[in-house]
Amino acid sequence: MEGYGEFHDFNIDMIYIGFFEDNLYNGFGILRNYKDNYIYIGEWKNNQRDGVARIFKNKKENWGKFKNNILIIKFEDSNDIVRSIEEKNKHMLDFFIAKNYNDIIRFTKKQRIMDV
Q1: Which residues pair with 23 in a beta bridge?
Q2: What DSSP element (H or E) covers 81?
Q3: Using an 8 Å Cβ cutoff, are 96 and 78 in contact?
């Protein structure tokens, strides 16, 4: 897959909505794992969390920066994301800072594939 798209893995109960390159998550994307109640909104590189991110785990919100799937910096608030985001992803700032938890839950709902 290339460009913008969605991937649903019903075996592990997760959805990815975002950009692909060579069939891998690359660029900006949102991953929601329903079973673990986890949402990652951020930058990806070759299927790994890599760059700035907004994370929800059990409705608790955090911000940080990842490298090779490892959290390397924990931000105090969303202002750090604005300062750290890659230029090519600045158009997605709304998801990084403005959308609330319930908006993101609606955007990544399981029935999404049926709504399109």
Answers
A1: none
A2: helix 79-84
A3: yes
Cα dihedral 54, 102, 28, 31 sign:
positive
Q: How far apart are CA 46 and CA 20, in angstroms?
A: 9
- Asked whether 115 and 15 are in contact (CB, 8 A), the reply is no
Q: Using the 8-state DSSP alphabet, how is residue 100 labeled? A: -
Q: Are 15 and 32 in contact (CB under 8 A)?
A: yes
Determine how many CB atoms are found less than 10 A away from the CB of residue 116: 5
d(CA 72, CA 48) in angstroms, rounded, equals: 13
Distance CA 22, CA 35 (A): 27
pLDDT digits (tens, 9 = 90+) for 25-55: 999 999 999 999 999 999 999 999 999 999 9
Between 113 and 43, the more confident residue is 43
Distance CA 4, CA 93 (A): 17
Q: Are 39 and 31 in contact (CB under 8 A)?
A: yes
Tokens describing residue 2: 């290339």
Compute and round to an integer the Cα radius of gyration of the chain: 13
